[in-house]
Amino acid sequence: MNKISEIKKTKWYLWLGNKYVIFMLLFLTWMFFFDANNYFFHKELSDDIKALEENKTFYKKEIEKDKAFIKKMKDSSEMERYAREKYYLKKENEDIYIIEHQDSVK
Question: What is the pTM of this model?
Fold first, then answer.
């Protein structure tokens, strides 16, 4: 019995034995792990927000590239040059020769 009374007088037992401390520890454990809005749920949402913000910056850059391309294509000579290079279009009575280098042929 003497050993138990000595343990009850220690500082950590008095502190952890307090009903308010016990309640606070149980409450924090519940909120951190078991609640519907727990830490892990918030971390997952934060990661999703970060990924969406990265997508947002990527798509803003792509929109700027597309706007510059559209502005460039408003000129008819640029549009013709692009169609000739990309889609191998040609004018009437015109021959097109596609030259492939030895290292580009499979």
Answer: 0.55
